[in-house]
Specification:
CATH architecture of the largest domain: Up-down Bundle
Structural class: alpha+beta
Strand order of the largest sheet: 2-1-3-4
Number of domains: 2
Number of strands: 4
Oligomer: single chain
Length: 209
Amino acid sequence: MLRVLGRPSSINVRKVLWLCHELGVPFVNDPWGDGDASRKLDDPAFAALNPNLMVPVLEDNGFVLWESNSILRYLAGSRERTDLYPVAPRERARVDQWIDWQSSDLNPAWKYAFLSLVRRAPGYDDPQALATHAARWNDFMRVLEQQLQGTQAFVSGETFSLADIPIGLSVHRWFSVPIERPQLEAVSAYYDRLSEREGFRLYGRNGTP
C-alpha cells in the first residue's frame, strides 16, 4: 500500500491524496509535520527520506520519492493512466507546461497574500506589498482565464488531466483567500466543474485554503 507522508492540510500533500483517489489506489496518509512532536520534519527518520525536510514524501513498495509534481507524474505513469498523463510527446508537453506554470509562476504569486491573510505569518504585514502581490496573483489568474476560455473545459484540453490537480487546488486557494478578485467567468465555471469530482471535494474544496 502507498504511504503519503505529510500533513493533510498542506496543498502539496493534497495534490497527491487527490490523485490517489482519482487512481483508485489504496493509501495511508502519515501526517508528518502536523505539529505532533513525534512527527517533526527534522526527525532523523524523516530526514533520511527527504533531506529537504519538506512534505510530501511518497513510499511505494520501497521506492521513495519527494517533490509533489514529480510524485504526480510518477503515480500516473506507473499506473499507466495515459488519460491523465498522455504518452504522445506534444500532448504530454502541454500537460507538463501547465503543471510547471503552476509551480514556477502561479505559486509564487499567491505566497505573500496567503501567508499574510491566512497564516498571519510574521513579516507578511506590509499593506503595499500585499496589494502588489494580490494584483500579481490576479494577473496570473487572468492567464488561466484566457486558457479556459479556449478549452471550455479543463486546463490542457477537453478532458481532465494531471495538470488540473495542482491548478485546481490553486484556484480553490484563490477563491478562499480574502483578496479583491476580478470576475473571471471561465475560472468560476472550471471551479464548479472540478467540484463535480469527488476527489476535489475531498482534498480540494474541503474547507482548507
